[in-house]
Write a structure and sequence with these properties.
Layout: H1 5-9, H2 12-22, H3 37-46, H4 48-54, H5 59-63, H6 81-87, E1 100-109, H7 112-117, E2 126-131, H8 135-156, H9 173-208, E3 226-235, E4 238-247, E5 249-251, E6 271-273, E7 281-285, E8 297-299, H10 308-314, H11 317-326, E9 330-333, H12 336-341, H13 350-359, E10 364-376
Parallel strand pairs: 9-10
Antiparallel strand pairs: 1-2, 1-10, 3-4, 5-8, 6-7, 7-10
């Protein structure tokens, strides 16, 4: 946005409540957008093209999404009835767990050229970050596929050391069905985030009495972090087409990569690295040549160091509330138990994680962000 921290400070609580009112949050949250079977089918097949057609996204939003916000391999018939039923009411909803909406302020700029290319001109500038995915639909697609893959593995004699690593041969009927259903889930995720961006823009417009366009609420980038995609990479000196599955990790193409959007050809693909509740987040950029050893992949967040169950036994949610308040952070949360499960103590230190990524060649620091408003499910 073109707002500053000073602009927000006087209206911080009002803004937090407006966002909480606009964006449905919590386990099983529903009602972000009007939905029907036809709406859901079109969203799963067309992704951001549907959002654009229905007026929930700006034209330039599509250009700033991985894959331009649409997986062309999506096939509606590959998604189970149960998954469709779970996804139907959840378009434009945040859900729970580690998903969040945050109003943040640019705290430190390490690369002025890169930051300026993304629209961040100075420290104190206000930005928003949305972390969410395909909700219950994507979860059900994964659950359905695990069952089918386990049977497939028995038939094919495939053995793995962890049931969570269930897999299928790429050209098998089970493998192809999963790719089609997963593509639908990815399209749902892009539509879901674009819908929440629409609702977020509306909340800002209501509080500051200006249009989202006048507030310069442009999208910086929409990255994926649980997805499998076909990409071309060098392997043993030869260019090969690979199905690359990034789980809890994000793509980070280097500058001038042929699959990179035109907007960021000069600086490379931004990586949005969310911190834990109440801590910094970061935007990283790739090194000049990228990290080919990881197939141009970097981290997507701080990473857990304690389980949710352990935190519920050891953390007092009142203490978490006090810490956030003392840090000047406005909080809205649907469930007090989430405060214990998602507190900063449950995650690694994000700044240390970013330092390790940079020293390992997995990217370079561009912008550090500090939260002002935190919305959790």
């Amino acid at each position: 946005t073109n707002l500053t921290e000073k602009d927000v400070k006087g209206k911080q609580e009002e803004l937090a409540q407006a966002i909480f009112n606009h964006v449905p949050v919590g386990v099983g949250s529903e009602g972000g957008l009007p939905s029907s079977a036809r709406v859901l089918k079109d969203a799963l097949v067309y992704g951001m093209d549907w959002s654009l057609r229905e007026g929930y996204a700006w034209a330039e939003d599509k250009e700033l999404c991985e894959e331009y916000g649409r997986m062309m391999t999506a096939d509606y018939s590959a998604v189970s009835t149960r998954a469709l039923k779970r996804g139907m009411p959840q378009l434009g909803t945040l859900g729970a767990g580690n998903h969040f909406v945050e109003v943040q302020v640019v705290d430190e700029i390490y690369d002025k050229v890169g930051a300026r290319r993304m629209g961040m001109e100075h420290t104190g500038q206000v930005v928003c970050m949305v972390h969410c995915g395909s909700r219950g639909l994507g979860h059900q697609v994964a659950t359905d596929s695990l069952v089918e893959m386990e049977a497939h593995m028995l038939q094919e004699g495939i053995e793995v050391n962890d049931p969570q690593l269930a897999c299928a041969r790429l050209n098998s009927a089970v493998g192809q069905k999963y790719l089609k259903a997963m593509s639908c889930a990815a399209n749902f995720a892009w539509v879901n985030r674009s819908a929440m961006t629409f609702l977020l823009r509306g909340a800002f417009s209501k509080v500051f009495q200006e249009s989202p366009d006048d507030l310069d609420m442009k999208l910086i980038y929409d990255v994926s972090h649980n997805i499998a995609k076909f990409e071309d990479h060098m392997v043993d000196g030869k260019l090969k087409s690979l199905l690359l599955h990034r789980k809890g990790a994000t793509r980070q193409f280097p500058p001038f990569h042929p699959q990179l959007v035109a907007e960021y050809q000069g600086i490379g693909q931004p990586s949005l690295i969310g911190g834990s509740m109440g801590t910094n987040s970061h935007i990283m950029l790739p090194t000049a040549n990228g990290c080919a050893d990881t197939f141009f992949t970097t981290c997507h967040g701080a990473g857990r160091r304690s389980s949710r169950a352990a935190l519920r036994k050891t953390v007092d949610y009142k203490g978490v509330l006090e810490d956030l308040h003392d840090s000047g952070i406005s909080l809205r949360v649907a469930s007090p138990s989430l405060l214990m499960e998602e507190c900063a103590e449950g995650y690694k230190d994000i700044n240390s994680v970013i330092d390790v990524c940079e020293s390992s060649g997995l990217g370079r620091k561009c912008v550090k962000l500090r939260p002002l408003v935190v919305i959790k499910g």
